[in-house]
Write a structure and sequence with these properties.
Elements lengths: L1 H27 L5 H6 L9 H10 L6 H13 L13 H36 L3 H16 L2 H15 L10 H32 L2 H8 L4 H38 L5 H10 L3 H29 L2 H13 L1
Length: about 325
């Protein structure tokens, strides 16, 4: 188990480094000049060359690219993400201000997605009525294919403008979070339902289910005691993968619903090519993605001990 956990942690560190490096490279290959954007109060207006030179020196942009990369990487390892080029605020401070709203949105969206996906998958795998199973299995592909911005606008039109059950823009609390959360949850829940249903059906076809039925067990007892636990692995993996997707989707959803959060911060940072802020957001998203998937990987042996057994068998074979 220790070796298994060590390998997963090493992979997580590599993913974080790769995400930071790719983001750094892409941002510095963009054609526009972030310093001129920060120095100019009016886009397209002439800028003071002295102010531009001062900003380049302040943010280390007058150094070679490799030196800028190494400085940014070593500072990020120490938790220093620098200052915003457009506002002068520390990147950690800007992210800390925007993060609670996005975390509340993403957490509620993921909870709704898991509840929707698990309910549809379990009901579809359990029922013996072909028409009901066909109806339930048709829901996930449809929900996964719906564009997020279209769903958000539709929910706004129905529940905010017509029924007036929830605030349209900039809402806080549960009433202001539920519509954006549902918008994010619908496509994610569809993917989780598809994967979980396939895993459940595959587990139902295993020989041990026939043995359980031969002992007189009911269909619900077999699904609850013998099917759910081994079928959870793929669904957990997809849920972990979609944590990063939910954070990325918050950019669109927070724009549609005019919510303050990481999405709006990302939008402004990309618009002004605020390199430190963009790097900080990329690193945050990668960190959340890596931590969640690391927890999923560490939970796998608890759900299916055969993973550890196969690793030990490989070690004995290599020895």
């Amino acid at each position: 188990m220790a070796r298994y956990a060590g390998i997963r942690i090493a992979q997580a560190v590599i993913v974080l480094w790769a995400a930071f490096s790719v983001a750094f490279g892409v941002l510095y290959l963009l054609p526009s000049d972030p310093v001129e954007l920060a120095a100019s109060s009016v886009p397209g207006a002439p800028v003071d060359e002295t102010a531009v030179a001062e900003l380049r020196a302040r943010y280390g942009l007058d150094q070679p690219v490799w030196a800028q990369y190494w400085t940014a990487l070593t500072h990020a390892v120490r938790g220093d993400l620098g200052h915003s080029m457009s506002t002068g605020q520390t990147v950690t401070g800007a992210i800390a201000e925007a993060l609670p709203s996005t975390l509340a949105l993403a957490s509620l969206a993921l909870l709704l997605a898991v509840a929707f996906g698990a309910t549809v998958a379990i009901a579809a795998a359990y029922t013996r009525r072909p028409w009901l199973r066909g109806l339930l299995t048709a829901l996930p592909p449809v929900s996964a294919a719906l564009p997020t911005f279209w769903v958000g606008l539709l929910l706004l039109q129905l529940f905010s403008f017509r029924l007036r059950w929830a605030p349209a823009f900039g809402g806080t609390g549960f009433s202001g979070t539920i519509l954006p959360a549902v918008t994010l949850a619908i496509p994610v829940g569809g993917v989780i339902a598809q994967v979980f249903y396939s895993s459940l059906i595959g587990t139902w076809r295993q020989p041990f289910t026939d043995i359980a039925f031969a002992k007189g067990a009911s269909r619900w007892w077999v699904q609850r005691r013998h099917i759910l636990r081994p079928a959870l692995g793929p669904a957990l993996t997809i849920a972990g993968l979609w944590v990063g997707g939910v954070l990325a989707g918050s950019v669109v959803v927070e724009t549609v619903f005019a919510r303050a959060g990481i999405g709006r911060l990302t939008q402004n940072a990309v618009l002004y090519q605020d390199i430190p802020v963009v790097l900080g957001i990329v690193l945050l998203t990668a960190l959340v993605y890596v931590l969640v998937n690391l927890l999923v990987d560490l939970a796998y042996p608890l759900l299916d001990p055969r993973i550890i057994d196969s690793s030990r068998a490989k070690e004995r074979g290599n020895a």
